Structure prediction request, 122 residues.
Amino acid sequence: MEKQLVESARKRGISSDRYAVTIECKPESSSSFWKKIGFEFYNENEASFVFEKLFDLPIKESPINVKIMFYQEQVKWIPQTALVKSISPLAMLDPKGTIHLQYRVAAYVNSKKYNRDTMIKI
Prediction:
C-alpha cells in the first residue's frame, strides 16, 4: 500500500514537472522504507527525492565525460573539503560548445550536508 501511494505521488510530481520532493519521516522507524525507494536523507528524519527527467541527446554530437561535484561552501578556502555528492551523466558536446546532459541534475542544497552555500564544480 505504501509503495502504491509513493508511486502515485511520484507520477504526480513528474507530470507537474517538479524537480524534487522533501519529506519529514514520521515515525523515524520508517526511514529504512524511504531509503529503499531512493530518498536521500540529510538529517535523522528529513529526506529528499529528485525526480528523474530524461532529455534527448543530439545523436551526431561528440560524447564527453562530465563530472558534477557538490561541495560545502568552505571548499573555496579549504581545498581538501570532502565531496558531498558526485554525478556523472552521459553528455554530448555540440559544435557551439554547449554541453547536453542525458538527464536533469539536482540536489537538495538546503540540507545540513552543505552547511550554507553549495559549491558545484563541473
About this structure: Strands lie at 20-24, 40-41, 46-50, 62-65, 68-72, 83-87, 90-93, 99-101, 118-121. The chain has a mean pLDDT of 82.
